[in-house]
Specification:
The complex is a heterodimer. By secondary structure, chain A is mainly alpha-helical. In chain A, about 45% of the residues lie in helices and about 5% in strands. Classes of the chains: A mainly alpha, B mainly beta.
């Protein structure tokens, strides 16, 4: 399993989270200034230089539980609050979206292009803030240094590592069901035919060589029509990524589905033993992250809802999925701190910030990050 | 032509790994065994030849110092040795027969007992080893840059006979039959080489995505290739001076990225395949 997978998993899940939050902030008519602050604060925390440096060190992936906790913290890095049901839904949407992108990537190296699509949109959220923008640009450079020169084989290993992280997750997502890219059993539709991976040839030809090396072509019917890919996506800081995977699929006309339980879980009772032990590295990163986020911001707080209204949110919260591996995940309202024992196990001695240090001023988060 | 047969349901789903299905037929006991990796667990199914009884069991790869969770299994395979058949696992932290550093480890397996010794380390590949295949005293190894090396056993040591340079796409799976090498590549190509000369006999644009496994039926030279493109394809080898290959048949398994495939019989009339995230072993049987 590749030890270079964690940054890609984190950045892409983070990107999907930002798409959903951005769309919900608009839909809930949150004032522009507040929305901007939320996006800005979260991107700033996510791409904090020290945190990124830790993340880019060769290491195994976090357990599913630890990854979920990291995003719980991250989602609460600003003045926005999510309750447990909304956080659950947010995380499910994020993970299924990235699982879809990794599953559909034409070739393993496209995962880097998918990452850059996420980076491009996140950069656009912080265009006005020079400080955060330079943080984002630094991550572009880290991505280029770490991944641009990797071989096909190394990317193949990264793709397998990601797919195995998402193994047994078959949550149905309404936007995918509507687009007919996901089946009712939660599996993605894999269309045959269409565009081929960059650098490969159309199936259907046997080149036969004789002893002198002369070749003769024999065709066979491959069963579908394929198109050769003409151009490779750009790995530069700005450029055409060619693939649309990893772009924002939500818009006002294609919103994050909020009515009813848009998500239904059918997670197989897997033997997910990677969750048995909290990994020390994930714990250390959580520690760092919570120090970065600092004290709870209490002023100007508002609550974001991933459901149509509070009633539906309450209903969703009361539905306990049956036989769901994820049900063991603790739902954390980070504003209350690490109260549950499960969470405490993961977070260890992590303190929820230096309580006296942070107020609600806009500048505080950035100040904390610089210190 | 090939007809879908009743699948076997495993206790867990199939991980995304190349060659993630091993089949082992014990003819005199009329028993068929299948092994598929699910993260750090190997799901094993033992079936009777007529398919009426299937017993599933799980093998969990554990380590005494389990501070970092369980190690992922990278490969599970039955290896037929003259004196006995052994089940070999390679994991993230454990025995690696072909290693990430490009070395091939040679072990001495006694005909009885568990005293397995590391005999030799062969360092000729410059990239990670993807797959190994053998026939008689010939060993074929394939790596992540698509290079293939043919080794011959002389006395107790292996020496290089042929070195076939790759194109940069991994050779995920390699099979050997009557001195013919078939390699399945991540670019979707199948390539056929002579193991003696290294000469290429055929290059096939076989699949639209990475090929994850190839197998050859040992009595007939029928080839199976499976791919992320949801297709399994059947081919026929011709062991001539320069080996040739012909296309026979293709089957699409809807929405399933195929990661493992093996023939069940020597003639190549029955085969089984696995796909990522599915807990079924799918069977196909040739009707005539």
């Amino acid at each position: 399993m590749s030890l270079k997978t964690l940054p890609l998993l984190f950045i892409n899940l983070g990107g999907e989270m930002m798409y959903i939050l951005d769309q919900r902030l608009r839909a809930q008519n949150i004032p522009t200034e507040k929305s901007k602050k939320v996006l800005n604060d979260i991107v700033a925390t996510m791409f904090n230089k020290r945190f990124m440096e830790e993340l880019f060190k060769p290491q195994t992936l976090y357990s599913k539980k630890a990854m979920r906790t990291v995003f719980d913290r991250l989602a609460h890095a600003s003045i926005m609050r999510l309750n447990a049901a909304s956080m659950d839904k947010l995380y499910d949407l994020m993970t299924m979206a990235f699982k879809y992108q990794v599953s559909l990537a034409l070739r393993p190296k496209d995962i880097l292009l998918i990452t850059l699509n996420h980076m491009d949109t996140m950069r656009s959220y912080v265009e006005d803030s020079a400080g955060v923008r330079s943080q984002v640009e630094h991550v572009y450079r880290m991505l280029a240094e770490t991944y641009a020169s990797l071989s096909q084989g190394e990317f193949q290993l990264i793709r397998q590592t990601l797919l195995n992280f998402f193994q047994d997750m078959h949550i149905r997502v309404s936007i995918f069901l509507k687009d007919k890219v996901q089946n009712n059993n939660g599996r993605f539709v894999l269309k045959i035919g269409g565009t081929l991976p960059y650098g490969t040839e159309s199936p259907g030809l046997i080149r036969s060589f004789d002893a002198s090396g002369k070749s003769r072509n024999i065709a066979f019917a491959p069963g579908a029509n394929y198109t050769v890919s003409g151009r490779e996506g750009s790995f530069d800081q700005r450029g055409d990524r060619i693939t649309k995977l990893g772009c924002n699929m939500y818009s006002s006309s294609r919103p994050v589905e909020t009515s009813g339980p848009s998500i239904s879980k059918s997670v197989m009772q897997g033997s997910d033993m990677d969750t048995s032990n909290p990994d020390p590295l994930a714990k250390a990163h959580l520690d760092l992250l919570s120090r970065l986020i600092g004290a709870n911001v209490t002023k100007n707080e508002f609550r974001l809802n991933l459901f149509k209204d509070d009633k539906e949110e309450d209903e969703a919260a009361s539905i306990q999925p049956i036989e769901v591996a994820e049900s063991q995940v603790v739902n954390i309202d980070a504003s209350k701190g690490g109260k549950t024992s499960e969470l405490a196990k993961i977070m260890g001695e992590m303190s929820v910030g230096d309580k006296g240090g942070g107020g609600g001023d806009d500048s505080d988060l950035l100040d904390l990050m610089d210190s | 032509m090939f007809k879908k047969d009743k699948p076997i349901t495993l206790k867990g789903s199939t991980s995304s790994l190349c060659n993630n299905l091993a089949a082992y037929v014990i003819a005199d006991k009329s028993q068929l065994n299948y092994a598929v990796v699910h993260k750090s667990v190997i799901n094993i199914a033992c079936a009777s030849a007529d398919g009426t009884s299937v017993v599933g069991r799980q093998l969990i790869c554990k380590e005494p110092s389990a501070s970092q969770g369980l190690p992922f299994v990278i490969q599970a395979k039955w290896v037929n040795l003259p004196a006995r058949t052994i089940f070999v696992l390679t994991s993230q932290r454990g025995i690696q027969v072909g290693s990430e550093a490009g070395a091939i480890l040679v072990f001495d397996i006694p005909s009885k007992g568990t005293s397995v010794n590391l005999l030799d380390t062969l360092q000729k590949h410059s990239a990670s080893i993807c797959d190994l295949a053998s026939e008689g005293d010939t060993l074929v190894s394939a790596d992540e840059l698509g290079s293939i090396i043919v080794w011959k056993l002389g006395g107790s040591s292996l020496s290089v006979v042929v070195n076939i340079r790759g194109s940069g796409w991994p050779c995920n799976s390699v099979a050997l039959w009557n001195d013919v090498i078939v390699g399945g590549f991540a670019s979707g190509h199948l390539r056929v080489f002579s193991a003696t000369s290294g000469a290429i006999g055929a290059e096939v644009t076989a699949h639209a995505r990475t090929i994850n496994a190839v197998d050859i039926a040992k009595d007939s030279g029928v080839v199976l290739s499976v791919s992320d493109d949801t297709y399994l394809r059947i081919w026929q080898l011709k062991a001539m001076n320069v080996p040739q290959i012909e296309y026979r048949h293709g089957e699409c398994l809807a929405d399933l990225q195929l990661v493992g495939g093996q023939f069940v019989d020597g003639q190549g009339k029955a085969l089984c395949v696995t796909g990522y995230d599915s807990n079924e072993i799918n069977f196909f049987v040739n009707q005539h």
